[in-house]
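Sharing a chain and its predicted structure for anyone who wants a worked example. Both blocks are below, sequence first, tokens second.
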Amino acid sequence: MSEPPTILGALRAATALLARMEADTALQHAATAAARACVAALRARGKIMICGNGGSAADAQHWAGELVSRFHYDRPGLPAIALTTDSSILTAIGNDYGYERVFARQVEALGQAGDVLLGLTTSGRSPNILAAMRAAREGGMVTIGFTGSGPGAAELAEVSDIVIAIPSTSTPSIQEGHEVLGHAICAMIEAEMFPRQG
């Protein structure tokens, strides 16, 4: 019989995950490359689009909010769109084309060559995320996949220019890792786009 969850146990698990992430230089290089790709797109007057399901949809909205509003300090807003927020669009596409197309259709409608799509799927196998990534590639966008270390990471890699794979197969832990790196990437974008003086 397994031990019941505790706050201390959760903190220790999170600490262990962060230690694995700190030791994972490939992960750090991928996240840095993702931030640079976003900065390059923004400097070329492109935008960042983000999609995910469930908790990853919440991350998409969270990160878009950090970029459009602010992260560490006041500065002009940055163009970022969470493709998870418009219930009329989501239900129209789901009804007319199927749930698998809810993000791909938006990418086709809103994306332009040089934009960036961040696709979050903890399993690496979410059909609607994979479809969106394929649509983005076909449209000349940069695709950045966020996932875990399970077998689905290879599937996501096939449609991603950059893959950020958290060293875990636990969905909650992968989401926690995504949130840490999402914040780090937002901070790097903000600092590159609007350097603070002094």
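Comments welcome. The chain is about 55% helix and 10% strand.
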